[in-house]
Amino acid sequence: MFGLELDRLSKQYPGHLAVDDVSLSIPHGQFVCFLGPSGCGKTTLMRMIAGLEEPTSGTISLNGRDITQEPPNVRKFGMVFQSLALFPHLSVGENIAFSLRLQGRDARVRRERVAELLKLVRLPGFEKRAISELSGGQRQRVAIARALAQEPQEYLLDEPFSALDAKLREEMQAELRQLQAELKITTILVTHDQREAMTLADSIVVMGDGRIQQQGAPADIYRAPANRFVANFVGLSNLLSVEVLDHQTVQLGARVLKVASVADPRTAGQAMLSIRPENVRLADPATGLEDDNVIAGRVTSVRDMGSNLEVILECDGGRLLTVVHARDWRGAGAGDVAHIWLPQDYCRVLAA
Ligand code: ATP
Question: What number is the average pLDDT over the span 198-226?
Fold first, then answer.
């Protein structure tokens, strides 16, 4: 395959299995985000791809060639890692030009390229600055520029924007996405920020407990989380205890509800119905409970967010959060009973 291929990769630290049997194909030119909570193994996986950590088992191939034993400098990946600090004795400009110097580019080309990259990372004119004179966010941006100067075919980024404020982070994300699409650099970015993953990635790899929990396009992962872990980690999800009756119906308290799908066909008995807050509708009070997928719930709190209201209800099976447009709100308050519509298309069933 043209691209990166991980085959049954594991990393065992003394007493801790950090990466557990991960297989993954990343086609050339794709932007992939490894997304997961702290400690799930995403940095370890990335360090193995970079050649900074030796796998306990499994192989890594690039364009069909086994590179598992190749040292990092031979892999020639562009890398931005917390552990790969800038060279403290070199200026900003010299740091960025480092790989160009190794390639034997002449001084004028180096100067022009450094100026161009500094503009890109919003640090024009910083060539002569010492690394010790930079803030954490400025260092991150110099590291991004240094990695880009290599014009790598593969780009590995571990939380590259973590030290930037929200506005600069969004600007840098947009720049990176545009550059990546133009140059078709295969890019892997590690983040625990689901918003960052959703806006940047062609494909998200959700990790939990050293394993891949789900991989797919951002919209698919959001719409159809494969399990409870993903439903909870990517966006907000309501999870109600239900009993599976068949592949399209579940029992919630005394009500039988129709669902779009049971995520895992082996799911039987007790399970969780998952539905996103924006898909839970408050039904007209005149709507009878005999209507399909309408249930009763007691309002426990209403939070006015301006254009929207966040309403929390208690119903059979658990707590439900719904987001209601202000103009659709009929003014029920805490303690009132409301009728709630759970549209079938948005109801997914996950193993309990
Ligand atoms: P974070 O977002 O906090 O950086 P992560 O998902 O990148 O987390 P890793 O750094 O890959 O997580 O660590 C995965 C697990 O392996 C953690 O439980 C960590 O404590 C453990 N670990 C990492 N490096 C080592 C090491 N050198 N020796 C032993 N255990 C390690």
Answer: 95
CA of residue 45 to ligand 1 center, whole Å: 10
Please indicate whether residue 79, judged by its CB atom, sits closer than 6 Å to ligand 1.
Answer: no
329 Cα to the center of ligand 1, angstroms: 46
214 CB near ligand 1 (under 6 Å): no
In the reported structure, the alpha carbon of residue 192 is separated from the centroid of ligand 1 by a whole-number distance in angstroms of 13
Q: What is the DSSP letter of 132?
A: G
Instruction: State which CATH number among 3.40.50.280, 1.10.3720.10, 2.40.30.10, 2.40.50.100 fits the domain covering 236-351.
Output: 2.40.50.100
pTM over 0.90: no
Ligand 1 within 6 A of CB of 43:
yes
Beta-carbon neighbour count of residue 37 at 10 Å? 14
Task: Enumerate the CATH 3.40.50.300 domain ranges in the chain, comma separated.
Answer: 4-223
Q: In the predicted model, what is the mean pLDDT of the chain? A: 91
Q: What is the pLDDT confidence band of residue 287, given thresholds at 50, 70 and 90?
A: low
**What token pair was written down for 309?**
């209201």
User: Cβ of 151: how many Cβ atoms within 10 Å?
Assistant: 15
The Cα-based distances of 329 to 140, 275, 280, 332 in angstroms read 45, 20, 13, 8
Indicate the residue type of 220: D
What is the whole-number distance in angstroms between the Cα of residue 147 and the centre of ligand 1? 24
How far does the centroid of ligand 1 lie from the alpha carbon of residue 21, in Å?
16
**Cα–Cα dist 313/338, whole Å:** 8
4-223 is classed in which CATH architecture?
3-Layer(aba) Sandwich (3.40)
130 pLDDT band, cuts 50/70/90, is very high
Confidence of residue 292 (pLDDT cuts 50, 70, 90): confident
Question: What was the pLDDT predicted at 289?
Answer: 67
What pLDDT band is residue 263 in, cutting at 50, 70 and 90? low
Mean pLDDT for 164-186 is 88
Task: For ligand 1, say whether the CB of 13 is within 6 Å of any of its atoms.
Answer: yes
Spatial distance between the Cα atoms of 49 and 9, rounded to a whole number of angstroms = 10
